[in-house]
Amino acid sequence: MHTDYAKSAGQFRHQGQPPSRCRRGFLKSQDSRWLAAQRVYHSALLIEAELVHGETVLDGSGQPVGTVILRPTWAGHEFLDAARNDTIWHKAGERIKKSGVDVTLSLLKEILNQLLKQSLNLP
Q: 51 with 9: CB under 8 angstroms?
């Protein structure tokens, strides 16, 4: 799975916690320059994926050097709602690991929604 989007979503999900304390442990380095660059990069991915409303500031070579995030989009809220349940999140992770293939964010959302529907006995 191209994990940048999932990591970004996980980081966003734990907004307000220092990255080293995120429950899922995506960011472990304490190097503040690395953390700042990763936050900008992942924030830019969230904007690009239309999970949040915001703006990305690019340098002369087109690389993100800053972001302004305003709020989650409707799709961002839906993804967070689907990923909020730890049982569903872990089941999705197990299913992905078992398959041994990379998945896209849209497929991850489908898996989460499918598992959520199953937990509610919905078709």
A: yes
